[in-house]
Design a protein that fits this description.
The complex is a heterodimer of chains A (about 130) and B (about 325). Chain A is α+β, with helices and mostly antiparallel strands and about 130 residues long. Chain A has four helices and five strands, in the order E-H-H-E-E-H-H-E-E. Chain A has a single domain, classed as Histidine kinase-like ATPase, C-terminal domain (Heat Shock Protein 90, 2-Layer Sandwich), CATH 3.30.565.10. A five-stranded antiparallel sheet of chain A has the order 1-2-3-5-4, with helices on one face. Chain A is globular, with a radius of gyration of 14 Å. Chain A starts with a strand and ends with a strand. By secondary structure, chain B is α+β, with helices and mostly antiparallel strands. Chain B folds into two domains: about 90 residues, KaiA/RbsU domain (Methyltransferase, Methionine Synthase (B12-binding Domains), Chain A, domain 1, Orthogonal Bundle), CATH 1.10.1240; about 220 residues, Phosphatase 2c, domain 1. In chain B, the strands form three sheets. Chain B has a five-stranded antiparallel sheet. A five-stranded antiparallel sheet of chain B has the order 2-3-4-5-8. In chain B, strands 10-11 form a two-stranded antiparallel sheet. In chain B, helix 1 packs antiparallel against helix 2, helix 3 runs antiparallel to helix 4 and helix 4 runs parallel beside helix 5. The chains are: A alpha+beta (about 130), B alpha+beta (about 325). At the A-B interface, helix 2 and helix 4 of A face helix 3 and helix 4 of B. Bound molecules: adenosine-5'-triphosphate and magnesium ion. The site of magnesium ion has 5 residues of chain A, from helix 2. Adenosine-5'-triphosphate binds next to helix 2 and helix 4 of chain A.
């Protein structure tokens, strides 16, 4: 996929930059306020994970248009340590903040589609899609 | 989403009514709206969004600052919405687990069922009530061809499912001990080997095994670190602790258990129990062992089964009907 825009994540403040660009995309595509806020939160979670666990990586955005719908793709890529047990990580209550709904299961809830490809010692690629309703 | 839109005009009207009248009725309806929203899994940020829209319809000239502040509030509620959804899904999982456990519990019930035998000259009472769904106590009656009666009573240190699993293992091991090896010390020695081999070292099992032989009216017994029972001497009208030494099951492979014996006279009682009986609590206070004996004494005129049931009822009530530990009490009385 050819992404229209990427934000590098190296330091904590880059999370804010990623949110900003993601929100601008979302607004242009036609998402309402609530969905914009959800998308921004999903971006925060993904970007913070990159910052915390991989050190560096990037968040990319792309608009997708199909015949009858429009949406936003968020791709979070890093070449950090990878996630060993993905199904564990996707269990509710597993994240460090356990029981607060955040983390990757939260991202899955906030978005419509969610996919992780991760290999240990190689890196992680998380793709999330949300459609305009 | 569509149901919510449907409610938007409703919400706007309520809000309008409230702003005009400050009326309690509108507030009551807001409460209903809130409940309905939760039933339909509508998260707080969506409600705030409805509020913003209603506000804009009511006050088209709404100051920019107020609008921004509402968006700020919406953003601040996102995590609450997520936590609420997670709570919902954890609650569903919990319900599923609960029903799984109750299936397991009834399987355990079936597995560990023991029939209280009829033995001539003996009046037997037995009760075992789990504190939670699964019972970590175990008791079992074995009646051999030669009319001897074996009684096993055991307690797993630890509660719930792991304890229950360990108990099922004990039961099957007991079933496989050959009949000619049913002496108390033998039984504890072979169970000790099973536990030592198969159970996590952090889990302890205590057990008392007694064997009554009607032909010579003697009671043989051994204990693996189990809560001591009591012997009621009818001739002297006195209770005494049944002393039996032995380490808990599973500590070392080749533990030997000493076997004791005593003659049982008419009217005497043998009382076997688990620490759920002796460690009953009234508020923060543990009861004294004498209290158990006092209670037994006060119901001693009853048949053994009624007796154990009354003792249980007494302590159930004493603990505000909330058992903290599995409760097992067995009483054998030699009839006159
Ligand atoms: N990009 C990544 N690279 C390597 N490991 C990751 C990455 N993202 C997540 N993980 C691992 O997955 C776990 C779960 O991540 P998740 O975001 O769900 O929760 P968390 O970061 O532990 O806590 P929270 O996000 O709720 O503050 C993390 O603890 C981390 O071990
Ligand atoms: Mg995280």
């Amino acid at each position: 996929m050819d992404f229209q825009s990427c934000v590098n994540i190296n330091k904590e403040w880059d999370i804010v930059g990623a949110r900003q660009i993601g929100r601008d995309f979302a607004r242009k595509i036609g998402f309402g306020t609530v969905d914009q806020a959800r998308i921004a939160t999903a971006i925060s979670e993904l970007a913070r994970n990159i910052y915390l666990y991989a050190g560096t990586g990037k968040i990319c955005f792309e608009t997708i248009e199909e015949i009858d719908r429009k949406g936003l793709v968020i791709l979070a890529v890093d070449d950090g340590p990878g996630i060993a047990e993905i199904s564990k990580v996707m269990e509710d209550g597993y994240s460090t903040s356990g029981g607060l709904g955040a983390g990757l299961p939260g991202v899955k809830r906030l978005m419509d589609e969610f996919d992780i490809i991760s290999e240990q010692e190689k890196g992680t690629e998380i793709k999330a899609v949300k459609w305009v309703r | 989403m569509s149901t919510l839109n449907m409610d938007l005009s409703n919400y706007r009207d309520l809000l309008k009514q409230y702003i005009r009248t400050q009326d309690e009725t509108a507030l009551y309806q807001a409460e209903q709206f809130s409940k309905l929203s939760m039933q339909q899994n509508i998260s707080p940020e969506e409600i705030i969004n409805v509020h913003i829209q209603a506000l804009q319809e009511l006050y088209p000239e709404l100051p920019e600052g107020i609008k921004s502040s509402m968006n700020f509030l919406l953003e601040a509620m996102i995590s609450y919405g997520l936590a609420y959804q997670e709570f919902q899904s954890l609650r569903e999982q919990q319900l599923a687990l609960k029903s799984e456990i109750s299936v397991a519990a009834s399987m355990q019930q079936t597995l560990l069922t023991t029939v209280k035998p009829e033995v001539e000259g003996l009046d037997i009472g037995a009760i075992s009530i789990p504190a939670n769904q699964m019972n970590g106590d175990y008791h079992h009656f074995v009646q051999n061809d030669d009319n001897k009666l074996g009684i096993a009573i055991a307690d797993v240190i630890g509660k719930g499912i792991p304890a229950a699993l360990a108990m099922s293992m004990i039961k099957y091991s007991m079933d496989s001990i050959p009949e000619n090896r049913m002496d108390p010390s033998n039984i504890l020695e072979s169970l000790n080997r099973v536990v030592e081999r198969n159970v996590d070292p952090s889990m302890f099992i205590t057990m008392f095994y007694g064997l009554y032989d009607p032909s010579n009216e003697k009671f043989y017994y051994s204990s693996a670190g189990h809560e001591p029972g009591f012997y009621y001497n009818a001739a002297e009208d006195k209770f005494e602790e049944i002393e039996a030494r032995g380490v808990v099951l599973g500590v070392t492979r080749d533990t030997e258990y000493r076997q004791y014996e005593r003659k049982v006279n008419a009217g005497d009682m043998i009382i076997m129990l688990t620490d759920g009986v002796t460690e009953c609590r009234q508020g923060d206070r543990f009861i004294e062992p004498e209290e158990v004996l006092d209670v037994i004494k006060s119901y001693m005129h009853l048949p053994a089964q009624k007796l154990v049931e009354q003792v249980y009822k007494h302590f159930e009530r004493l603990q505000d009907f909330h058992l903290r530990d599995d409760f097992t009490l067995i009483i054998l009385r030699k009839e006159v």
